[in-house]
Amino acid sequence: MNCSALLHMLIFSSVMGFCETNEKQATRQSTGLHQLNRKNSTRHRLKRGWIWTQFFVQEEVPAPQVIGQLKSDSDRGDNSIKYILTGEGAGELFHINEYTGKIQTLKRLDREEKAFYLLRGQAIDRRSNQPIEPESEFIIKVQDTNDNMPQFINEPYVASIPEMCPVGTTVVQVTATDADDPLYGNNAKLIYSVLQGEPYFSVEPKTGFVVTSWPNMDREAQESYQVIVQVKDMMGLSGGHSATTTVTVSLSDVNDNGPAFHHNLFTFAVAESAPVGTTVGRIMADDADVGVNARMNYSLEEAEGSDTFQIHTDPVTQEGVIVLAKPLDYETKRRFVMAAEAINDHIDTRFLSYNEFRDRTTLKIFVKDVDEPPVFLAQEYEWKIQENMAAGTTVGIVSARDWDVVNNPVRYYIDKGSDMKKEFRIDPDNGTITIVKALDRETSAWHNLTITAKETKQNNLFSSVLVFIKVLDVNDNAPQFLQSYHPFICEGVQSGELVQVISAVDQDDPPEGHHFYFSMVPEKHINPNFTLRDNQDNTASILTRRSSFTRQDRTQYLLPIVIMDSGSPALTSTPTLTIGVCSCNPNGHCPAGGVEAFALSMGLSIHTLIGILVSLLTLTEQLH
Ligand SMILES: *[C@@H]1O[C@H](CO)[C@@H](O)[C@H](O)[C@H]1NC(C)=O
Ligand SMILES: *[C@@H]1O[C@H](CO)[C@@H](O)[C@H](O)[C@H]1NC(C)=O
Ligand SMILES: *[C@@H]1O[C@H](CO)[C@@H](O)[C@H](O)[C@H]1NC(C)=O
Ligand SMILES: *[C@@H]1O[C@H](CO)[C@@H](O)[C@H](O)[C@H]1NC(C)=O
Ligand SMILES: CC(=O)N[C@H]1CO[C@H](CO)[C@@H](O)[C@@H]1O
């Protein structure tokens, strides 16, 4: 009760309605201010006459607005008391009627600008000019009205979450602020709600956390969402202010799709002539995922001939590139059928089973025929033919074929350069090679022909083959002296002395090598002048059989010698050795050469002389 005595003022709130509702809050507010001792007594007092040290004024209400009244207990209503107002805003914002003590606003107030004003009131006796009451301090609180809209901060909101994430996954927190009094009423009590984006997203009303509310959100179905979140003050009750913001949510990919071939059969064709490494074709398994989750490994199933092809992944397109790994031959295999498989490179069994990350398709690869040149049955031919065979004898037969399905007939030719002497002929139709004339091994032991086979239709494709013809030896050559010998004997030579060692040659080429046999021409009488000794090594030695050869007696002797080869049948020749007689130097050297000297002295040519001598000899033999 003493508190009211101290104050001596009656304060009438001009706005009773709202004071009632804000009473409690006002009580709390005032405790820290310059205050009188009141507490529960105040309530009692309030109930009696609204004596209070705190006025309330509604913000944003146009002036003049009656706030309240100061009144002294001793005021009898005779205008003897003068009320004076001082302090913040006195006279500027607040006016007091000096007679009645009524206080009213001069201007519209804004709580968000200044929430309260500290003022002092005085009551003075007009006559004595003395204060009737002690000066009293009080405050005018500006009462909040909901004159501010909530506002989102930190915009724009962009978030990414993995698809298929569980319900309740946090997307982002949206935040709004409100300039109104957070402690007074609900003017700044904000509530969030989703205007657009349900049922996939929800927002926690008080915190603004946007979370997922839909299981199995599929990026492949929808990749991004525009969630519109609304914030409302006044606890979301009607009549409040609101604002919206947009949250852009994108779903990031997870591997929740396996590869899928859109065709269960892929058909390709490749030319049989295609080189190894040729790209035969491309297959594609689709995968709704992106990036790493759409990466593909391709493989070919083991099947007959499947190793003729290889498959690898195009790193850019993720296609399976089928490449030729082995040469093809249309005539051998015209069609390949095999299965191909695509499997994701990065498998995530959280979303699909292992087998759902793979798919199969069938490949059919047809080999296209290409017109190819004829092919000889042998890479080369080597034949042998004996020399001296009759013209028309067959040496051998070449054969070439066009393996193409059309199987064009071929014709055969001998390349002219390989048979300059035109010794061979080929039958153009059946490839039979014959000789045009007898061959002589001793002229040419090899005939190496180039034979061309040419298709008679279409592109006249051709190919060639080498034919080696070896001419086999026949013993058709008689042995001869290795060289022309000019032996001589000195007058007075002894019996048994070596006159000449002779040797022989033969153009034939017996496989086992040459073997020559030497002998004297068989006669009734043994030659009294010379002997022959076969040395068994393809040489023979001619020896004197007697002494006392003189030039007076004879200047030369003719000695026919039989040489036989080892052929079958054997061939024999009988060349004649002419042995001169010379009057030698003491050192056994014949200065002039026996035969020459003789021939010149006779005035005859040596050939004539030999001719005469041979006739004489023959005559002599016949006479015997
Ligand atoms: C104020 O009054 C209430 C009931 O009227 C009472 O419960 C409370 O204890 C009182 N407080 C003080 C500080 O006297
Ligand atoms: C795909 O191929 C790559 C490279 O050959 C290999 O490392 C990876 O293990 C393969 N993935 C699967 C699932 O086979
Ligand atoms: C090849 O053809 C010729 C001429 O028509 C014929 O004389 C010869 O007998 C044929 N040879 C073969 C092996 O068919
Ligand atoms: C023919 O071929 C044979 C065997 O290759 C060879 O020895 C010979 O010298 C060749 N002859 C010619 C004239 O090319
Ligand atoms: C066969 C032969 O030539 N005999 C001759 C041997 O020598 C004597 C003497 O010179 C000749 O009279 C032979 O004719």
TrEMBL record:
Coiled coil: none annotated. Its main location: membrane. The keyword Transcription regulation does not apply. Residues 72-152, 153-261, 262-376, 377-481, 481-593 form the Cadherin domain. One of its GO terms (biological process) is calcium-dependent cell-cell adhesion via plasma membrane cell adhesion molecules. This is Cadherin-12. GO terms for molecular function: beta-catenin binding; cadherin binding; calcium ion binding. SUPFAM superfamilies: Cadherin-like. The lineage of its organism: Eukaryota, Metazoa, Chordata, Craniata, Vertebrata. It comes from Albula goreensis. It is a single-pass type I membrane protein. It holds the Pfam family Cadherin. Keywords: Calcium, Cell adhesion, Cell membrane, Glycoprotein, Membrane, Metal-binding, Repeat, Signal, Transmembrane, Transmembrane helix. It comes from the Eukaryota. Residues 1-21 form the signal peptide. Transmembrane segments: none annotated. InterPro entries: Cadherin, Cadherin-like_dom, Cadherin-like_sf, Cadherin_CS. It is found in: Cell membrane. One of its GO terms (cellular component) is adherens junction.
